[in-house]
């Protein structure tokens, strides 16, 4: 039985979602604000987190940031009434895996939860583990655990997705990192919108690495990217 943590300040909606998922065999934890939701997460370690963005005490972005400080893998789905692209991108940058705009159907939520649970189950161990905390990339030292990229005395603090993409690039040094594989792994699907979001992260990584001209992230048209140095 998969354990789902739902954090939603609209009590009526929260109860509907909670009851519907319990009827379909999920074990449910429910919190009506971000601070209580974070406490439940820390105490119960759910298999997936479903949370609203706009909430009292602690918003969904802050909850996600706190979760990702200690947990890089538990799937997170945002529920949002917002439609601005910047809010969706911010959610992905902080480590979210999927989102649903309100109003949504219960069937769609359940399909997305099951897809993420299955994908993360199948993907466990698919990406080779980083044996050491630090990886040398030209003149840079990349610490995946701390999500930092350091050159000389300057340290760049990476977002969760930036660190995940750079990890995959560095573990496939001088080989093609397939775009579709990363999109399915980190975003949940390879839609046009998510592909554009990934392009933004690649651009940011190129900017972080620009002071060592030997280091390049090369676009392999129609396939993916390659880190070379």
Automatic annotation (TrEMBL):
Domain Response regulatory: 3-117
GO CC terms of this entry: cytosol; protein-DNA complex
Residues bearing PTM 4-aspartylphosphate: 52
SUPFAM superfamilies recorded: C-terminal effector domain of the bipartite response regulators, CheY-like
Superkingdom of this protein's organism: Bacteria
Domain (OmpR/PhoB-type) ranges: 132-229
Gene3D superfamilies tied to this protein: 3.40.50.2300, 6.10.250.690, Winged helix-like DNA-binding domain superfamily/Winged helix DNA-binding domain
GO BP of this protein: regulation of DNA-templated transcription
A single MF term (Gene Ontology): transcription cis-regulatory region binding
DNA-binding region: 132-229
SMART domains reported for this sequence: REC, Trans_reg_C
Swiss-Prot/TrEMBL keywords: DNA-binding, Phosphoprotein, Transcription, Transcription regulation, Two-component regulatory system
Protein name, per record: Response regulator transcription factor
